[in-house]
Amino acid sequence: MLDAYQFAELHCLSHYSFLSAASSPQEMVQQAHALGYQAIAITDECSVAGVVKAWKQTQSTPIQLIVGSYFNDQDDTFTLLATNQHGYEQLSALITHCRQRAPKGQYQFSSADLLHHDLSDCVLLYCPLGSWRSPNTELMLQLAQRFNQRTFLLIKRDLLPADKAFVQALCKLSEQCGLPIVASNMARMHHAQRLPLLHTVLSIRAGQTVAQQQAHLPCNAEQRLRTLAELQQLFQPAWLKRSVAIAKQCQFVLDSLQYQYPSEVVPQGYQPHEYLAEQAWLGAKRRFQQQVPPAIAHQLVNELSLVHDLQYEHFFLTIYDVIEFARQQQILFQGRGSAANSVLCYCLGITAVNPAQSQLLFERFISKERDEPPDIDVDFEHQRREEVIQYIYQKYGRQRAALTATVITYRLRSALKDVGKALGFPLIQLNQLLARLDRRDSEDDWQQQLEAMGVLQHPLGMHLLQLTAQLKGFPRHLSQHVGGFVIAKGALSNLVPIENAAMPERTVIQWDKNDIETLKLLKVDVLGLGMLTALRRSLDIVAQRSGQQLGLADIPQEDPSVYTMLCKADAVGVFQVESRAQMNMLPRLKPKTFYDLVVQIAIVRPGPIQGDMVHPYLRRRDGLEPVTYPNAAVQDVLQRTLGVPIFQEQVIKLAMVAAGFSGGEADQLRRAMATWKSKGQMLEFKRKIVEGMLLRGYEEQFALRLFEQILGFGEYGFPESHAASFANLAYASAWLKCHYPAAFYVGLLNSLPMGFYSADQLVQDARQHQVEVLPICINQSSWLHQVVYPNGKACIQLGLLLVKGLSQSVADDLLAARPISGFESIQQVQQLQLPTLDMEALASAGAFARLSGHRYQTRWQMTRLGDQLDMLQHAEEGQADYQLPAPDALSDMVQDYASLGLTLAAHPLALLAASAPQLPNYKRAAQLKNLRSGQLVTVLGLVVGRQRPSTSAGVTFVTLEDETGNVNVVVWRDLGRTQRKQWLNAKLLEVKGRIEIEGEVIHVIAGRMTDRSDLLPTRAVRSRDFH
Amino acid sequence: MNAHELRGTWLYLEFHQLQLQHWMQQRPNCEQPLLIVCSDRNKVVQANPSARALGIHPGLALSDAWLLADALDYAYWQPEVEQRLLQQLAERLYTAFADLSLDTEANGLWVQLTTQQRLHAQQQTVADKVSKLLVDTEYRASFSSNPLLAKLGIDDRAEALLQACQGYPLRVCGLADDLHHKLSSMGLDTIDKLLQIPVPILGKKLGQPIVDFILQLKGQLKPRLLIYQPRELIYLHRQLHAEVHVWSGLRFVAKSLLQDLEQHLRQSQQAVTRIYLVLFNRDFQGNPAQMPYKSNAFATFPLGVECVEIGFARAVYRLADTYSVLQLKLENRRFKAPIVDIGLYVEQTEAFTAQPMRLDQSKAGEHQLATLLNRLQSRLGADKVQTIHQHTGWLPELQQSLQPVSDQDIGLSTAHDSTQSYLDWRPPWLLSPKPIDIRGWRIQGQPQRIQPPWWLPDQSGAADRDYLIAQDKVGRWGWVYFQHDAKAQASPQQDPGQWFLHGWLS
């Protein structure tokens, strides 16, 4: 009988060998430990994507983890195990080499690579699965010589027909080549129960059903981690013991990886802390006009000292270098997140949150107790972010800089679809199931819903449910993170393999951000924000007119007219406060100062909502409830928010001042708040908080109430610094809307897609603000939308980019050839010989209206057969005289939507009302404020928005648009279920219900809904659905 | 419409749900919503009244249809089925109207009535005649002065063309997509709008197709029509001189018919795999010299007609081959009534390539085998003569199945899809698993472990099997397996499973 620890599994795959294995690295580690293995090697295919997660598991499951990877060459497998750090670097370099010479997701390897690469600190395990019948002994002898007693033959026993012959062949091979044999499960799953899942993922990978693939699937569950007793029956003792001996050679541990910062960010002659301090103080003087307040100075000194102790100078300087590049290129940027708590970041110009305006908590960003590197997210203009990314690549080179990975995992839809296809369900049936599944239905989970649909009546219905549940969360493939960079002093492949991303000129490492955090490597996030692009565009337009360049910092602060506008919920297009929920809150909260705006942004979040902070805050603000504090310490924390904790930092500070938490404990609380549902740690914190507060003389009721509020933050409330960063941008965009509306809308329109609203809705909003919008014109439009000033008044000239089917390159050619006085006829444009489809697109968009009158006539004039037959050229003379009748208003509207996605003609409903007598009687949006609350009402409108926030308990908010404005409809959960067919896909919706009016806020509570989409002449009206 | 001169009159018959009607006739009184769906776009193309009542209509996506009706049933659209049905309808009409043309794109038929004016002077008479011939078939009939207008359902015989076409959408006129798109992009979406533009101008702008279209509308250009040609159906008939009650009385006549058939087939180098013997008794009202039609596509033959179908394993033409099988089929048959006429027809023939004489015994053997199989199938029934087919599968019993013999089996091919390598030997004939006491056996070698395929309904949850070769006390080699207990929690040694014998190696 084998003793425990007399076997080490040296070759096993986790599900990071995408769609080749059926267990996670954590499961493999746990099972190996439970079975009494000495060690386990996670050897995914040409990858180490799973090793960090496996390593993290070994922190709580004591078993040796060996880092390795396997490579396939014509079905023979070559497994390499790292014996030390140098061996790991060699392995990583080989993986990088194989990945980078193949497209994304693939690799190119041949056994010859083992002879040409330095792998002197790796162990090689060779299993001739493909060639054992006629083995390549010459290769084996070469490998034996090259690896010098570090080469072994890997043997497996699957209890398949060829088993016996395979073992005999390998024994013979071992004798011939002098390679010792070592045993392995070659496991693809940790437990036999995963066999159906293994079959399913292998079939998904092959693009066939399980039944079609069965000839290629393992017909038993032997490719798993087996018990020691089973292994003893299958393998010779010497083969088993050899696995332990090999494991003892492999002593590399992941957390021994040394990360070194790039050094070129520190100029010669400087020490890192000196240079950082110099730049910080220079920035402080800039920020505070040479008079740095003492409190700020004191804080800056503390922060610099802490950064020096923790040796993070290079990190800050790396980011400083990037933002300086952006500044020189006049690319707008702003740091956010926990970094906005830092005075240092503010002085360096990374963030824009003035510490004098907000209460910052530096420990939220960095502390000695946190024991994790800082995380700075910097947003750049989304349309120019690529310039910043390329700057990083150019400065550090592709060997030293790469994006972090994102693991794309199976969600419910994709899992159900892929499993269903693998089981042989017709695609049409799967699409039907998915179409009927309400993923946000919190009452019935998806399995219950599918059962209710009768899935279990299908013979494979139970398997569909079970396998889908197992496959959810499984990795599908690696993708690139949106902007997280890892930059190293030396070759990055010494740390982690690099592979090609799908985008050209992009490379990505094999670890995701969680792995980076686990190993405490530093990451720089270069993110894109559409609003920054929009703001820059708008400010440029204002500067063109005024002759004076405006930056974000130049915008006048605390303008009352801006807040007046926001209090009326006139916030379409305004950053962060344009959602339905925000616009409902604005008339209630009535922001009048910058800090009010910070609160506004933070309060409409799941954290405060679920912690029931919103109503107390509003009542106190309106003077309906007294503001009280148990003591001065709590008052100090909560005074700015009237005694109600709204920001994450407040919760952490309260834990410290009221319950006596240390900085580190408070940080643990912060982490637990984000994961309390799964970890269940909050009960322990409840005890600490309540006991700590009772000890300090607080009332139990207050303590329990505070804890409930903290629980609500489990759904993530905003840090104040983060809200403040966003409030900066929100105020800037509101100021522009208030004072320069044309520039505001043009900035947004030129930056789409972004934000909540479509071009159509933005244009409607502009017109409701008396901004004239001029149609597309062949002689007036540029590619982008512009602000023009006919008669001295700012108007929006729509740009050619709106024309569906028109390419920018063709538009550029057209604009280059356009005479200063404009084209005089369609024929003149046709002489440019632009592509036909682009010309048709322009005709459909009505761009030639000034030349020909209407689009029918344009198309008539553009149609010609003369090119085909010379003799018809003369015959075409006089044809242009034939005049076609113009389209009616409804047809024009339809074609406007089809070609531009919007119309400048009358609103579709106004046209319908004139032409469709069967329209029901309904109240317009503008009429609702004259009704009384509780009155029954019928409304009708285009569905331009459907939202169901996660905190809404299944309630859906539908926005209808008619010719006078928007109507907010509330659909309760149960009604939404029973009338789902009416509202879910409707383009035009009639709602009979009851009106509710609370101050400026008007809602219609739906009672009976009817889909009237059949009355619409076009389905091209788009809505913004958030489900 | 009252009596009309039918000179220059066209009748168009449109059958817009042929496949669905075909299906519904197989399921009479069915109230379930039934749909025919286009497989590549998953859209409804045909819907029965029950489906339409629920709001399901052609053009709707099937996924949307499911939202409206939980219990619907659907089949995929098969154009070849509709073509066949259309042919059958044409066959029926051909008995009354000689000038038929097929519209295969739209499942329609044109009837030119000019030559019929002496026989069918009134439109209503024609309509009645058509109705009788197409009983139990849904169709739309329209008369007009030219084929295109008739197809469009526009009757211009009583008013000017421009008025008759007022508001008629061009999108249903069968124009090429790009041409229609061009016209509608210019606001020319109805026929009357098009007719208002001078033809030369239209032609110079849009080319010949639009000119042709307008000329066809005006009856100045006849479209190319696919003239209907009836199928060549082989029908042979003999009248009996006396009533016949048993097969023996028919033998001579049947042989004579088959001889004629052989001659016909030999001349045309054709062979048959199926022939039909039609037996008429005194209850038959029609003319047995003409091939009797069924009242609809699926119904039985008229009263007084018995039809015997004879199939052959491979195509044949010789009397010797056909008669022996016919004899086997009929020698014990009881007729419903005394037979007075006998007919023989063939629906489909195939080209026959004469085989050269060979000394190759295998080919001779194949021929003998084919003959034997024909006789056995005729005697016992086609489904009673079976052979072993190999399949891909894990469990040995799933790798084999007995299937009726087909033409492919006669090739005596020894090659079969074998997923087994030479290492995976197993007995060719399996037993039903028989429990054994393993103590009486000597096991050889290591097991092969097979798990039943979990995706098969009757195998889900079934336990693993370990297969081994073993020798019993008297020296026979058997193929045995140990079936693990699926619920066994104990170690394998204590697994309370069972041993079975599954086949013999010798």
Shape of chain B: extended
Give the amount of beta strand of chain B, in percent. Answer: 15-25%
How do the strands line up in the largest sheet of chain A? 1-2-3-4-5-6-7
What is the strand tally of chain B? 20
Roughly what is the average pLDDT of chain B, rounded to an integer? 81
CATH topology of the largest domain in chain A: TIM Barrel
Q: At the third CATH level, what is the topology name of the largest domain in chain B?
A: MutS, DNA mismatch repair protein, domain I
Biggest interface: A-B, 51 and 41 residues
CATH architecture of the largest domain in chain B: 3-Layer(aba) Sandwich
- Note the quaternary state here: heterodimer
Estimate percent helicity of chain A. 40-55%
Q: Output the radius of gyration of chain B.
A: 33 Å
CATH-scheme architecture of the largest domain in chain A? Alpha-Beta Barrel
Strand content of chain A: 5-15%
- Biggest sheet overview of chain A: 7 strands, mixed
Concise overview:
The complex is a heterodimer of chains A (1027) and B (506). Chain A is α/β, with parallel strands linked by helices.
